[in-house]
Design a protein that fits this description.
This protein has 211 residues and is mostly helical. It has a single domain (2-210), classed as MetI-like (MetI-like fold). It is built from nine helices and no strands.
């Protein structure tokens, strides 16, 4: 059983790491566009912002289990299969991307306007303001938010086990629930708790160093 637990731990880490990475890239790109095109943005565009706002809110409203089942054809198209840890990365990324976009947008919008106006007065371009001023100033909040995203994805990855997504959730259901092996369920939950603590601790340490 130790080998099964270690393999499930590896699958969970694999799913969470890659889905956090991909959702971070896509979500951060969306956040930057929304910050640029918002009503008080550097390049206000109501049409673009409204469209992205609706898409983000729509995707966030889907419960993860329903979303995972609904996009099975897309998962098969991208991953070649709809079960297993690799396949789970697709719905995990799609589920987390709008969440990342929204919280990163909030982090960037918290940067004081005075700092942005000062950069503008020195002739900074939009790109320089976004990457050299806003992201730099918001980085402590972004780090903490990234930890929150990773922890949420850890919970989603456990839910993915319901439909054969692999990882600790899948192990807990197969052995702990279906075979009534309570010890496996306890071990799986304990490992998930430890992983949450590790992620949050790392996030807090990085936050303190760059604040």
């Amino acid at each position: 059983m130790l080998n099964e637990l270690l393999f499930a731990l590896w699958e969970t880490t694999y799913m969470v790491a890659l889905s956090t990475f991909f959702s971070g890239i896509f979500g951060f790109a969306l956040a930057i566009i929304m910050v640029l095109t918002g009503s008080n943005g550097l390049r206000p565009n109501k049409s673009i912002y409204s469209a992205l706002d609706v898409i983000v809110n729509l995707l966030r409203s889907f419960p993860f289990i329903i979303l995972m089942i609904a996009i099975i054809p897309l998962t098969r198209l991208i991953a070649g299969t709809s079960i297993g840890s690799t396949a789970s990365i697709v719905p995990l990324t799609i589920a987390a991307t709008p969440f990342v976009a929204r919280i990163m947008e909030g982090s960037l919008l918290e940067v004081e306007n005075g700092v942005i106006e000062a950069a503008r007065s020195f002739g900074a371009s939009d790109r320089q303001i976004i990457f050299g001023v806003m992201i730099k100033e918001a980085m402590p909040a972004i780090v903490l938010n990234w930890a929150v995203v990773a922890i949420n994805l850890l919970g989603y990855s456990a839910m993915a086990g319901v439909v054969g997504g692999g990882g600790l959730g899948d192990l807990a259901i197969k052995y702990g629930y279906n075979r009534f092996q309570t010890d496996v369920m306890i071990y799986s939950v304990a490992i998930l708790i430890v992983m949450v603590q590790v992620i949050q601790t790392v996030g807090n340490i990085v936050y303190e160093r760059i604040r």
